[in-house]
Amino acid sequence: MVHLRLPDFFTLGNLLSGLIALAYTYQRAWNIVLIAMAVGALCDVLDGALARLLRSASAMGRELDSLADLITFGVVPAFALYHYIRPLLGALPYHPEARYLMLIVPFLLPLLAAWRLARFNVESGGGGDLFFSGMPTPFQGLFWTVWIYAGPTGMWLHPALWCTLIGVVGLMMVSRWPFLSLKKPRPAFPWLAGLAVWTAMSLYLFPVSTALPVAVLGYALISRVASRWGGKNLT
Q1: For the chain, how big is the Rg over CA atoms in Å?
Q2: I need a labelling partner for 208 at 20 to 30 A (CA). Which of 51, 57, 134, 156 fits?
Q3: Alpha-carbon distance 120 to 174, whole Å?
Q4: pLDDT 10s digits, 176-212
Q5: What domains can you pick out in the chain, each with its CATH number?
């Protein structure tokens, strides 16, 4: 008989936070969505940490974690992007089909997140813990939440740029590109410090809605350099 363990309750907290965030995307209450997503991310960190500390990791916990992550960091960003752009479409001077595409493209994210999480479950257990193969699903989910909270305007509402950004970040999840694990800061400290400097400079030089994609680019590039110079263990 399978029982819930203490880490599993934090995983359920992650899922509950995602459901709350999802409900508030309909109201475009981006501050509440952001808070709920941050709580979900914290629960996601704590369930893994507790499972390692208590040595209570289980197959059920791993599957439950993926289901929670799919909702919180896959489905919620898609609906956040959808509800952000929908009321703005009427004022955009683009072809109706291009504007309709802007509504549809965000729903690639939960599809790619499901692929990423399933692959992780199948392949995890044989590598190290310094790098992930592909962008971590929680990271991209938080990226979209903060980006929407920042209120992207101007060039970011062009159909080509809107769809390209969503497509590139989504494909980063299912790529084999190495990404530094943010859950293990000690062994990767020099690289994460460099990433922090890159992000700070991006925020100083650009508006937040532009600085965040630039920061993601820095995350990808610094992770690649770190994997070449500091090891190639993937998880």
Answers
A1: 18
A2: 134
A3: 10
A4: 999 998 776 666 778 889 999 999 999 999 999 999 9
A5: 6-230 (1.20.120)
